[in-house]
Amino acid sequence: MMTSETRPKILLFGAGSVGTVYLWLLSRVASTTAVCRSNYDIAKKNGFVINSSIFGQNIEFEPDVVHDCEEAVSKASAPFDYIIVCSKAIPGVVPQLISPAVTLGHTAVVLVQNGVGIEKEYHEFFPENPIISAVVYLPATQRPAGVIKHGEVEKLQIGSYPSFAPDQHADAFTKLIQSAGGTAEFYEDVQPKRWFKLLVNASWNPICALTLSKDTEVLSSSDEASDVLLAVMLEIRDIAVAYGYNITREEVEYQLGRAQARIPKNAGIEPSMLQDVQAGRRIEVEAIVGNVVRMGKEKGVLCVRLEMLYVLAKALDSQIGRS
Ligand SMILES: NC(=O)C1=CN([C@@H]2O[C@H](COP(=O)(O)OP(=O)(O)OC[C@H]3O[C@@H](n4cnc5c(N)ncnc54)[C@H](OP(=O)(O)O)[C@@H]3O)[C@@H](O)[C@H]2O)C=CC1
Ligand SMILES: CC(C)(CO)C(=O)C(=O)O
């Protein structure tokens, strides 16, 4: 049996909708601390409430709550084994912010975020620490602060970064999630899984964010919409293929078909980038669109639709930053 001394110590950076669900799951097998920002007061006073289609309604969760990583370290009796980064993937500042809680050569940095090319800055900042990359399927929202609503899917696809780095930490984290009752799959190279998910994120996220529409609303709004969505997804596919990640046209059509099938049920999805725009938050434009366009250009792949989405979403993000 695991005692409080033998349970892994986990720090969550980014106690939003996705991170809080995973921290709750992990609290069954690990000691858990959450770095909170806008939801600090409510989380400190009342904890979180999770309403999940999979795990149940009205789940009350009270992790240790701190303002920042310095405070987390000052209250910890031992180094953190894992720091889970589940803030939005906006490059530039997070490695520095988490560094007080990353013990050299010990703490594994786990990125549970959308996008591609997100790991490099962590690997460069923490060259002696394991970097674990996790693709996440978990539709969730936090409204109001402290109250998480989670839909009907929960899955992590996990691997080491870079993929040739030793596997043991990513494998151990996969097993930890499984032992907590979550769904986790280990991959020797998780990057193809990132690209497969990107088919949906690099297309739907900016399009829904720019149009303030759910995916089904975009599809129903014009006869041209389905073909344009397919063309955008095929550009993403072409870039993935140029990097050796094989995605077939059938897989692209399947991804588009999932949204088309939800039209009669009026069951549209609001991607996280749309939720961010609605809440006036900066968007993950570089991780989800900009990096893809740059990688496409490096290989000479034509991606004019995606580039247009990047320019528009980048301007929207800059405008949010000014307001
Ligand atoms: N939500 C979803 O349905 C899905 C999301 N994803 C991906 O998962 C990742 C997390 O998304 P999600 O949970 O929706 O994100 P949220 O926006 O819900 O949560 C992010 C959290 O990080 C916090 N944060 C950001 N910067 C800091 C900081 N400097 N110090 C402390 N806290 C900080 C935010 O605090 P504050 O409130 O103060 O801004 C917020 O609580 C993203 O990469 C997203 O694309 C993937 C699949 C589905
Ligand atoms: C797949 C999807 C759309 C699930 O909500 C997502 O990853 C996101 O919202 O960013």
Automatic annotation (TrEMBL):
Pfam families linked: ApbA, ApbA_C
Ketopantoate reductase C-terminal domain: residues covered: 189-316
EC number, UniProt record: 1.1.1.169
Recorded GO MF terms: 2-dehydropantoate 2-reductase activity
Domain (Ketopantoate reductase N-terminal) ranges: 10-162
Gene Ontology BP annotations: pantothenate biosynthetic process
A Gene Ontology cellular-component term: cytoplasm
Keywords from the UniProt entry: NADP, Oxidoreductase
Catalytic activity: (R)-pantoate + NADP(+) = 2-dehydropantoate + NADPH + H(+)
Similarity comment text for this entry: Belongs to the ketopantoate reductase family.
Role this protein plays: Catalyzes the NADPH-dependent reduction of ketopantoate into pantoic acid.
Cross-referenced NCBIfam families: apbA_panE
Protein name as it appears in the record: 2-dehydropantoate 2-reductase
Lineage per the UniProt record: Eukaryota, Fungi, Dikarya, Ascomycota, Pezizomycotina
